[in-house]
Design goal:
By secondary structure, this protein is α/β, with parallel strands linked by helices. The protein has ten helices and 16 strands. It is globular.
């Protein structure tokens, strides 16, 4: 299901256009409505939770999810949603409105699929743009090649990347070593990244480290080769390094890797614009303890069917289950909604597999 939220004909007005197959529905959105500010403030609250602040209650999280759904699926758009068939549906949201982009759509709570996260409802962020080429068919693989780039500068808080690598190797070995290869660049410099890309081809680029936004531009933090301190790589520089490598998926396990302004501000947007079909990134900071269980489940499902939407929802379910064990009962687990999926339209199926019965 496609959902376009576009600048309207008047100030503070937007048009919501929903489409699925031959069905099209329109409704108007008031961008000055108090609910818009409430939703954006919830994104800010999630950021505070990630930094160690107080959590919302489970009731507050459910309330936000219900209101998100009711606000966007109203009128004819709501009636189109009611016509959706049973089974897995991806809600692909494309917008040119900055405020709509800042809304935490991942927490949406559909009336027909509760509780959330629900495996049959995946929120996907679609970047309005003219792609560099027509979408390629799902790549047929005999072996999935993953490049894990780890950056842990001495002037930044430590990154516990060994837990992530351990979980990935455990998942991959369950699929047999012949089916997946994992190359790790520890203490990654930009030179080491370029060298790896010059000598091998990869299907998945996975960055594990720090991210930040400076003057509206997202940055990944690599390691300076001389000082071992931070080397801030702006979104466009990351895109230049990876452009033309035919990578099908980028996973950015870094804070604020989906945040920033304008076309090449967020790292996720910059990578989509140079032709990477799907990017998993974070709109806010993300606690280190959330990374390992999330990415392990994501790879496990991706290796099963090659579909990034279903892999994303499996990872969110796994992360919520893992953190509920350590979060007080009446407090909400919000970390599962921090990772966002950005991709090209109709690009959920990234891979299909040869051999191994797949």
């Amino acid at each position: 299901m496609d959902l376009f939220v576009l600048h309207g004909y008047a100030k503070n007005q937007a048009i919501a256009l929903a489409r699925r197959g031959p069905d099209i529905a329109l409704s108007r959105l008031d961008l000055s409505h108090p609910e818009i500010r409430t939703f954006i403030r919830f994104t800010e609250q999630v950021e505070l939770v990630a930094l160690g602040g107080a959590r919302p209650t489970t009731q507050e999280l459910d309330d936000i999810g219900n209101r998100l759904f009711a606000h966007i699926f109203q009128g004819e758009v709501g009636r189109l949603y009611d016509r959706l068939p049973t089974g897995r549906i991806s809600i692909q949201i494309a917008t040119d409105e900055p405020d709509i982009q800042r809304i935490p759509w991942e927490f949406i709570r559909p009336v027909d699929r509760q509780p959330v996260p629900h495996r049959e409802r995946c929120v996907v962020r679609i970047l309005p743009m003219c792609a560099t080429s027509d979408p390629a068919p799902a790549k047929r693989l005999r072996k999935l090649k993953v490049l894990l780039v780890v950056a842990d500068p001495v002037d930044q808080p430590g990154v516990t990347w060994q837990d992530v690598e351990h979980n990935l190797r455990r998942v991959f070995e369950a699929q047999t070593k012949e089916f997946v290869t994992l190359k790790v660049i520890p203490g990654a410099t930009s030179q080491a990244l370029i060298s790896a890309l010059n000598t091998e081809s990869f299907d998945v680029f996975h960055f594990l480290g720090h991210g930040c936004v400076v003057d509206g531009v997202g940055r990944l933090v690599l390691v300076d080769v001389a000082t071992r301190e931070s080397d801030f790589l702006a979104a466009e520089q990351v895109a230049v390094a990876l452009a033309g490598e035919r990578i099908k998926l980028a996973i950015l396990s870094a804070c604020l890797s989906g945040a920033g302004k304008d076309d090449f501000g967020p790292v996720a947007h910059a990578l989509l614009r140079v032709g990477i079909p799907a990017v998993v990134a974070n709109q806010t900071s993300i606690p280190t303890k959330s990374v390992a269980p999330f990415v392990a489940a994501l790879y496990q499902k991706l290796l099963h069917d090659g579909n990034i939407d279903s892999a994303m929802m499996s990872a969110r379910v796994a992360l919520k289950d893992e953190l509920r064990k350590i979060v007080p009962q009446q407090s909400a687990v919000v970390e599962w909604g921090i990772p966002s999926l950005y991709r090209l339209p109709n690009g959920a199926q990234l891979f299909s597999y040869k051999g191994n019965g797949k």
